[in-house]
């Protein structure tokens, strides 16, 4: 497994196609990490749409968006599936955060989270408002995920640092 960016370093920038479910509309557009400067960004890499653990993880984060908003943070889900798959996934489960399509896994490689067999390791990167990586967790097996409470605690630390 590649190590990816280190805590305290500038997070690798990227632009990925994606979309976000707003009401009944799935708004498609490109998302660029550097364009989000000024707010914290939670990058949640996940292996696949509509899989059991991924669904539970993203539903948890989506239902907790007010918590993230209260910490002036955005949450972006990133996986290798295309935008059409993300739209279906978002509609099926009412997911309200941007879901980004890293179909060539270039962004996953830049973050050191590609894995043979599963494609992408379940992982979370917290990027500060200054674009610097402040915290990360990369799962070896990916059967569990970082909870909303854990992420909120880490984000609170970023804000007070």
How is this structure best described in words?
With 161 residues, the protein is α+β, with helices and mostly antiparallel strands. It has one domain (43-160): 3-Layer(aba) Sandwich (Glutaredoxin). It contains 5 helices and 9 strands, in the order βββααβαβαββββα. The chain has helices at residues 52-63, 65-70, 83-93, 106-110, 148-160, and strands at residues 15-22, 25-32, 40-45, 73-79, 99-101, 114-115, 119-120, 123-127, 133-138. The strands form 2 sheets. Strands 2-1-5-4-3-8-9 form a 7-stranded mixed sheet. Strands 6-7 form a two-stranded antiparallel ribbon. The longest helix is centred in the last third of the chain and has 13 residues, at 148-160. The radius of gyration is 14 Å and the shape is globular. The model has no long low-confidence stretch (mean pLDDT 92).
Strand residue percentage: 25-35%
Largest sheet composition:
7 strands, mixed
**CATH architecture verdict:** 3-Layer(aba) Sandwich
Radius of gyration: 14 Å
Mean pLDDT: 92
| Shape summary | globular
Strand order of the largest sheet: 2-1-5-4-3-8-9
Number of helices in the DSSP assignment: 5
Give the beta-strand count: 9
The name CATH uses for the topology is: Glutaredoxin
SSE arrangement, N to C: EEEHHEHEHEEEEH
Unreliably modeled segments: none
Number of domains: 1
Produce a short descriptive summary:
The chain has 161 residues and is α+β, with helices and mostly antiparallel strands. It contains five helices and nine strands; from the N terminus they run E-E-E-H-H-E-H-E-H-E-E-E-E-H.
């Amino acid at each position: 497994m590649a190590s990816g960016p280190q805590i305290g370093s500038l997070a690798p920038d990227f632009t990925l196609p994606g979309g976000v479910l707003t009401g009944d509309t799935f708004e498609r557009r490109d998302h660029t990490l550097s364009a989000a400067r000024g707010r914290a960004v939670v990058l949640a890499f996940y292996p696949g749409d509509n899989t059991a653990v991924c669904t539970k993880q993203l539903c948890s984060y989506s239902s907790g968006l007010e918590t993230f908003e209260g910490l002036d943070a955005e949450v972006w889900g990133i996986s290798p599936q295309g935008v059409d798959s993300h739209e279906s996934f978002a509609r099926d489960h009412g997911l309200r955060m941007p879901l980004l399509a890293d179909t060539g896994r270039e962004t996953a490689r830049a973050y050191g989270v590609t894995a043979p067999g599963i494609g992408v390791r379940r992982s979370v990167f917290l990027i500060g408002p200054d674009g610097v990586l402040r915290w990360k967790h990369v799962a070896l097996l990916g059967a569990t995920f970082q909870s909303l409470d854990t992420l909120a605690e880490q984000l609170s630390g970023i804000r007070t640092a």
